[in-house]
Amino acid sequence: MATIKDVAKLAGVSVATVSRVINKNGYVNDGTKVKVDEAIRKLQYEPNAMARGLATRKTETIALILPDISNPFFPELARAVEDVARTYGYTVILCNSDSEANKEKEYIHILKQRYIDGILFSSHSLKAEDVELMNKENIPFVVLDRAPVQVDCPVVRSKNFEGAQIAVQHLLDVGCSKIAHIYGPQEMATARERLMGYEDSVKHFDWFTPSLLVEGDFSIEGGKRAIELLMSRHPDVDGIFAGNDLMALGVMKKLHQMGIRVPDQIALCGFDGIHLTTITEPEMTTIAQPIYDIGMLATRLLIKKIEGTSENNRVHEFDVRLIPRGSTERK
């Protein structure tokens, strides 16, 4: 393999000049550029990306930190990030944090050492203090979907409050008279806004009581545990809005095991719009987010931030839509 010294020797220039041409950093006259480019072509020289990163502190690489790659929501998000990054000449490193704060902090430390250009967080455990620290260290980053409640950075997500209202109204429209909500971790704005949307929609009904709220953890198992507790409290509940599709899938599974029919006895609606909701029996009604669009916009915002052309920090929210299916199709 040819080295930068070989290129410099063939072009009759210094190694520093070759470096300036490759990194487009510093003045080199046009004639010298032509000689260096010709030498690179003849020797089929490929610059070492890591070495360039050490020299320029820019590696054309971004990281995507996810809480749980096994959740079908996140592979679709990652696909959008990779597609957009590639069009801008960036490579994506995928980091799975398993929703562990310490693992996430370790990733941030390692990525800084490797001169990563920026980070996309779809984080279960990102805290406001983590955001403040990265801002102080001038690390370009964007938070998508699962933002902390209060952050000083660009955030891309869906209209969770309105989505919850749409879900509850749909359950009312199909004839439900007592609707419960299984909610996600409240340190996340995503889950908190969905809970607030539910409460805003049902607080005026005589049947509403706080015991209709049951905590889950955005997982299938969390949905199973939550529905067992809910049915022990309110065996007469006839509608459930789950804070995400995975919990809704867990609810459906456990209700089947308990001999409770969906949707005849309990109508069920999830939130996210993941593909798994189309392969259940009955198929799951859901509030669908534009997952791919969220990933696309977040990546563009991050690259703008890296390249110094970003707008002020703000929250970008996408509309959601109801996809009615069999789990709420009551006779």
Order of helices and strands: HHHHEHEHEHEEHEHEHEHEEHEE
SSE-based structural type:
alpha/beta
Shape label:
elongated
Beta-strand percentage range: 15-25%
Annotation field: number of helices: 12
How many DSSP E strands? 12
Unreliably modeled segments: none
For the CA atoms, what is the radius of gyration? 25 Å
Q: Roughly how many Å apart are the termini?
A: 72 Å
> Spatial order of the strands in the main sheet?
2-1-3-4-5-11
How many strands, what sense, and barrel or not for the largest sheet? 6 strands, parallel
Q: Percent of residues in helical segments?
A: 40-55%
**Arithmetic mean of pLDDT:** 88
Describe this structure as you would to a colleague.
With 331 residues, this protein is α/β, with parallel strands linked by helices. Helix content is 44%, strand content 16%. The protein has helices spanning 4-11, 15-23, 30-43, 49-56, 73-87, 101-113, 128-136, 160-173, 189-202, 220-233, 245-257, 291-306, and strands at residues 61-66, 91-96, 118-121, 141-144, 155-158, 179-183, 213-215, 239-242, 267-272, 285-288, 315-318, 321-323. It has a 6-stranded parallel sheet with strand order 2-1-3-4-5-11, with helices on both faces. Strands 7-6-8-9-10-12 form a 6-stranded mixed sheet, with helices on both faces. The longest helix is centred in the last third of the chain and has 16 residues, at 291-306. The model has no long low-confidence stretch (mean pLDDT 88).
In a few lines, what is going on in this structure?
This protein is an alpha/beta fold and 331 residues long. It is 44% helix and 16% strand. The protein has twelve helices and twelve strands.
